[in-house]
């Protein structure tokens, strides 16, 4: 059983010319933990990964693998494993040769190499594919070879750069589970870079949400999804309906009253520390946590469109006070009234309080 | 009758009519446009070469003979020239490869903005005549030329070196003309090799040199082969460099044909020499084609 | 609470490989340009023979060149042949290349190989063969023969560029035009041509440059009226070795440079660095 190591980034920053790709960033990943770096393109997640891998030197700060400061080490001496976005399998080698490459570079004995390669092939369920050319493999199979290749040298930390991006949807979903299973089974520390929030939520122990070179929030998937700290985080993970309003009374029983702009509806939301009477806030509500009821109950809204999404129905509604349409998901189809006007309600427990603009 | 449920329509007893292939698709020209040039080339390319092949068998009395070829391949002097031709071509190819690969690698991996400048420097010599470039080498390396003047001035040699009219000078001249072709051939292939393959190798423990040697180099073999064939063929055809820089020390088939034409009128013999050269080129062309076909399959 | 100490500034890891290669490439570029520069410089020499260092600057060799009829006459012939053979080569080769580039048939593959074949044949063999065949047709040594000879080679160079350029253009554009209602001819003229025109002119330019410098081909067709510049330069070099060669070479180079700049300005061929 491998000794998995923690990863520590200490005040890493990087700029390219006049563009500050990373502001000083510090991060700790626990041994055996899978940490996702999640964010839109340009947020710095790939830059961070490349600094960890050693392809890029940070302008400031250090990278620690376990206790060792590896910042000055070139990539081939860091003992890491990496799965690239398009797998980067060596086209002129067979599956077995690809997997064996790392062991050859570490000068292991041929007998050992043979045994390890077989072991890895079994791990990723590609036992019979050893002598195939990589051009004969499907996308999913290539991905598994890439994984096997990265793990064969017993790396201290595994880096994954959008590993599932090139696969189609159903394959991606099954690979998410498989990858996670292997990572947990081997107990290896892993960093996953992705822009797909579903991937991050499914696979990781913790998510670091990044934007324009900074980590905006770190937490478990549930924390980050249900308690986003900024509008950006709430909208990046899942859909969020944002309704601005004003606090009209003191907190009581963990709830505070809010009068929403536009519709002037009075709602009760989960109390957030430091929010006081008279403060302007924004209420974020997940579509799956809202209910469509009769006109007069809750927030007035007008139905605009209905979309059937297979496992649920998505409703688009206009709400006075919201700059964008409000979305509500329901398991069962809902009959719209003649004039299309309905009322939206929600359980305050699932409401999210965000600061007013500028976040 | 229409089957309302499934939406299928079945007309009883009718087979769908066969369609005539449209000879020219969207915006494309038809093969008729190729006819003029094919006729032209048949008449002024295939025919002359073909008659040249026949001419080499001419014994001067209306009959056929292999005498010219036999003389070419067995006479000590002429066989030597044939071997010299190959030798020069092979050495030049190897030299161009060794000089050119690093340039190509730099252009693709490190040059960035400077790439255009380098490409310009590679192509610029084509704007000048080969006589100009060869003349330049003569001037540089002549007894009283630039290089010798410096060497003498800086006391590195007691007397000017005899650099022109040597075999070395011929190779320098040839390399100067041909390395750009090698570089551009290799660049074309190197550009297609994802840098991430080298990075993958490095993460797996390969030092930068190992990553190059085991990954990039094997993958660039197609470019190397194309470049080598090109340089080989072009060297075969060149004679000005040998004529002006070799001082008679380097005689290849092309040069011999030139000399024979000006000195003697042995047309059939010259034709035979030309055919040997032609044969080399055809073989090279065939190899090049097999290479392209193989690459097409691999992609 | 104190802010954490400012982290250490790091310098980018020095890439010795890039540095070493860079120096090598610099030296290599100097190697490429050196002989050319030397010739240009010495064309302005005031000495009466080739000598370094140059005693002074003078335009005497340029005067000499303009006075020397064979140089001027052959320069004219060279330019005429180069341009005419490029135009003829384009007229013959471009339509065939356009067809072959898109067609997948065996005939198309064969034709494109055939079009490119002249490049692989040593020019001296081609020139020699054509001389004898044309003589047998009693066309012998004449401007027309020379033109035909150069055209064979021009076709190959132009076809090579046009094939490459046209193959690189995805058929999507033509298909979009067809859907929008353009006939086959209109699509070709309004969509295809503008996209490949730089390629045609780049190929033509290349053919012109090759033709200007093609001695082995022209050598066999020499006479006072059909000598091309390289042929005259060669015999001059072998008989009188003086900086006139440098002057006429420089003039030829300037003509080529100007032509390239003009064609590039008109048709933007520099985009095709692969040409």
How would you characterize the overall build of this protein?
The complex is a heterotrimer of chains A (359), B (299) and C (275). Chain A has 359 residues and is α+β, with helices and mostly antiparallel strands. Chain A folds into two domains: 228 residues, P-loop containing nucleotide triphosphate hydrolases (Rossmann fold, 3-Layer(aba) Sandwich); 115 residues, no CATH class. Chain A contains eight helices and 20 strands. In chain A, a hairpin with a 2-residue loop joins strand 4 and strand 5. In chain A, helix 2 runs parallel beside helix 4 and helix 3 packs across helix 4. Chain B is mostly helical and 299 residues long. Chain B folds into two domains: 32 residues, no CATH class; 222 residues, MetI-like fold. Helix content of chain B is 68%, strand content 0%. Chain B is flat and about 100 Å long. Chain C is built from eleven helices and no strands. Chain C has two domains: 42 residues, no CATH class; 203 residues, MetI-like fold (Orthogonal Bundle), CATH 1.10.3720.10. Chain C is mostly helical. In chain C, helix 3 runs antiparallel to helix 8. The chains are: A alpha+beta (359), B mainly alpha (299), C mainly alpha (275). Chains in contact: A-B, A-C, B-C. Chains B and C meet through helix 1, helix 3, helix 4, helix 5 and helix 7 of B and helix 1, helix 3, helix 4, helix 5 and helix 6 of C.
């Amino acid at each position: 059983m491998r000794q998995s190591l923690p990863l520590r980034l200490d005040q890493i920053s990087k700029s390219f010319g006049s563009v500050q790709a990373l502001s000083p960033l510090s991060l700790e990943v626990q041994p055996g933990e899978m940490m996702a770096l999640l964010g839109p393109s340009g947020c710095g997640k790939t830059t961070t990964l490349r600094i960890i891998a050693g392809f890029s030197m940070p302008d400031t700060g250090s990278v620690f693998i376990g206790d060792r400061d590896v910042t000055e080490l070139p990539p081939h001496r860091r003992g890491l494993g990496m799965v690239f976005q398009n797998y980067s399998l060596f086209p002129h080698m067979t599956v077995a040769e690809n997997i064996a490459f790392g062991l050859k570079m570490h000068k292991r004995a041929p007998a050992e190499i043979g045994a390890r390669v077989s072991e890895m092939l079994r791990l990723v369920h590609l036992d019979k594919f050893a002598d195939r050319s990589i051009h004969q493999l499907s996308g999913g199979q290539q991905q598994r070879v890439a994984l096997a290749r990265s793990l064969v040298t017993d790396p201290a930390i595994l880096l994954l750069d959008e590993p599932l991006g090139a696969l189609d949807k159903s394959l991606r979903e099954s690979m998410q589970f498989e990858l996670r299973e292997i990572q947990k089974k081997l107990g290896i520390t892993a960093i996953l870079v992705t822009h797909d929030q579903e991937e991050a939520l499914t696979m990781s122990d913790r998510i670091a949400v990044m934007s324009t070179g900074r980590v905006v929030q770190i937490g478990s998937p549930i924390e980050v999804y249900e308690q986003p700290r900024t509008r950006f985080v709430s909208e990046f993970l899942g859909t969020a309906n944002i309704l601005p309003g004003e606090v009209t009374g003191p907190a009581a029983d963990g709830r505070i009253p809010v009068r929403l702009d536009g519709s002037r509806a009075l709602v009760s939301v989960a109390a957030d520390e430091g929010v006081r009477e008279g403060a302007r806030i924004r209420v974020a509500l997940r579509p799956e946590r809202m209910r469509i009821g009769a006109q007069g109950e809750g927030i007035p809204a007008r139905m605009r469109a209905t979309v059937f999404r297979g496992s649920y129905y998505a409703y688009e509604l206009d709400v006075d006070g919201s700059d964008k349409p409000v979305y509500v998901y329901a398991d069962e189809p809902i009959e719209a009234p003649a004039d299309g006007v309905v009322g939206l309600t929600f359980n305050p427990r699932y409401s999210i309080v965000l600061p007013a603009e500028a976040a | 009758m229409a089957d309302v449920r499934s939406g299928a329509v079945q007309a009883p007893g009718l087979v769908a009519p066969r369609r005539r292939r449209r000879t020219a698709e969207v915006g494309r020209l038809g093969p008729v446009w190729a006819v003029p040039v094919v006729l032209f080339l048949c008449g002024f390319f295939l025919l002359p070469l073909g008659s040249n092949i026949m001419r080499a068998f001419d014994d001067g009395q209306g009959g056929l003979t292999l005498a010219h070829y036999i003389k070419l391949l067995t006479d000590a002097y002429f066989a030597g020239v044939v071997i010299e031709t190959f030798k020069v071509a092979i050495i030049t190819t190897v030299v161009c490869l060794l000089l050119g690969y690093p340039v190509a690698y730099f252009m693709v991996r490190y040059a960035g903005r400077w790439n255009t400048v380098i490409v310009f420097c590679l192509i610029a010599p084509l704007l000048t005549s080969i006589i100009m470039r060869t003349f330049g080498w003569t001037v540089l390396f002549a007894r009283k030329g630039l290089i010798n003047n410096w060497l003498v001035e800086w006391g590195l040699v007691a007397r000017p070196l005899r650099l022109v009219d040597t075999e070395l000078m011929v190779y320098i001249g040839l390399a100067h003309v041909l390395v750009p072709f090698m570089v551009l051939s290799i660049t074309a292939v190197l550009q297609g090799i994802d840098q991430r393959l080298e990075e993958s190798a490095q993460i797996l423990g390969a030092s930068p040199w190992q990553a190059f040697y085991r990954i990039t180099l094997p993958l660039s073999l197609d470019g190397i082969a194309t470049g080598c064939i090109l340089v080989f063929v072009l060297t075969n055809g060149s004679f000005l460099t040998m004529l002006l820089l070799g001082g008679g020390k380097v005689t290849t088939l092309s040069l011999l044909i030139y000399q024979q034409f000006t000195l003697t009128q042995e047309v059939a013999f010259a034709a035979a020499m030309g055919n040997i050269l032609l044969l080399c080129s055809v073989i090279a062309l065939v190899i090049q084609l097999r290479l392209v076909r193989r690459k097409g399959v691999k992609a | 609470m104190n802010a954490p100490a400012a982290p250490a500034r790091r310098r980018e890891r020095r890439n010795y490989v890039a540095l070493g290669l860079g120096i090598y490439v610099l030296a290599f570029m100097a190697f490429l340009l050196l002989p050319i520069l030397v010739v240009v410089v010495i064309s302005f020499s005031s000495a009466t023979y080739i000598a370094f260092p140059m005693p002074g600057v003078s335009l005497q060799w340029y005067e000499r060149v303009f006075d020397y009829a064979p140089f001027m006459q052959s320069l004219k012939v060279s330019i005429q042949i180069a341009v005419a053979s490029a135009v003829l080569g384009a007229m013959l080769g471009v339509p065939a290349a356009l067809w072959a580039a898109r067609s997948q048939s065996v005939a198309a593959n064969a034709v494109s190989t055939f079009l490119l074949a002249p490049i692989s044949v040593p020019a001296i063999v081609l020139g020699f063969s054509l001389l004898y065949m044309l003589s047998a047709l009693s066309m012998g040594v004449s401007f027309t023969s020379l033109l035909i000879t150069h055209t064979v080679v021009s076709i190959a160079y132009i076809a090579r560029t046009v094939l490459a350029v046209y193959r690189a253009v995805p058929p999507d554009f033509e298909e979009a035009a067809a859907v929008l209602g353009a006939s086959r001819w209109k699509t070709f003229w309004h969509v295809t041509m503008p996209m490949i025109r730089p390629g045609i002119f780049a190929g033509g330019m290349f053919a012109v440059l090759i033709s200007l410098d093609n001695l082995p081909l022209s050598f066999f067709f020499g006479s006072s009226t059909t000598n091309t510049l390289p042929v005259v330069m060669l015999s001059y070099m072998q008989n009188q070795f003086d900086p006139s060669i440098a002057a006429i070479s420089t003039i030829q180079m300037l003509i080529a440079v100007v032509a390239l700049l003009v064609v590039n300005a008109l048709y933007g061929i520099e985009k095709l660095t692969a040409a």
